[in-house]
């Protein structure tokens, strides 16, 4: 149990789209503090969405909504046995999981088809907005696992 309450750090919206989700995507994508590189990748992908005649923020929100899970499982140890207890996912964790699954799926795409990471990210975001892709599959697998362990939902903390 923590001794004191922790302040929630407020994230500043990004400078181009003025969106906190885009700022989080940039932060999660960033490696070794190379924020300008991450910004360039994300903004290139969102500009490509704009060139396709779609609203980039709406497409990103749609992708996040389709990829964020409602339930996940947490292991709970009881009497020498471990049970996977389904719990409802908080809003902040939904965003974290959705963006990380989209980034993981983009990273796992082959380099032969897509020459830059911004194209991989673009493909994954557009697929996720259409309820397809690896990120959406990961969400469905997580929710299916929670559904199969529904019998242990009475073991909540």
Keywords, separated by commas or semicolons:
157 residues; mainly alpha; Ribosomal Protein S7; globular; RNA-binding; ribosomal protein; Ribosomal_uS7; Ribosomal_uS7_dom
Please specify the SSE layout and strand pairing.
Elements: H1 20-29, H2 35-51, H3 56-67, E1 71-78, E2 81-88, H4 91-107, H5 117-129, H6 134-148
Antiparallel strand pairs: 1-2
Helix pairs in contact: 1-2, 1-4, 2-3, 2-5, 3-4, 3-5, 4-5, 4-6
Domain Small ribosomal subunit protein uS7: 3-150
Function: One of the primary rRNA binding proteins, it binds directly to 16S rRNA where it nucleates assembly of the head domain of the 30S subunit. Is located at the subunit interface close to the decoding center, probably blocks exit of the E-site tRNA.
Pfam families: Ribosomal_S7
């Amino acid at each position: 149990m923590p001794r004191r309450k922790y302040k929630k750090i407020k994230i500043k919206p990004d400078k181009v789209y003025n969106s906190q989700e885009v700022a989080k995507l940039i932060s999660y994508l960033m490696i070794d503090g190379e924020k300008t590189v991450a910004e360039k990748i994300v903004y290139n992908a969102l500009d490509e969405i704009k060139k396709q005649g779609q609203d980039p923020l709406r497409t990103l929100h749609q992708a996040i909504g389709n990829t964020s899970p409602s339930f996940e499982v947490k292991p709970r140890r009881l009497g020498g046995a471990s049970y996977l207890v389904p719990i409802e996912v908080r809003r902040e964790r939904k965003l974290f999981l959705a963006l990380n699954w989209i980034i993981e799926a983009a990273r796992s795409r082959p380099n032969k088809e897509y020459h830059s990471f911004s194209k991989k990210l673009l493909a994954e975001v557009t697929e996720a907005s259409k309820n397809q892709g690896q990120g959406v599959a990961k969400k469905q697998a997580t929710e299916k696992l929670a559904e199969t362990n529904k019998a242990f939902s009475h073991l909540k903390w």
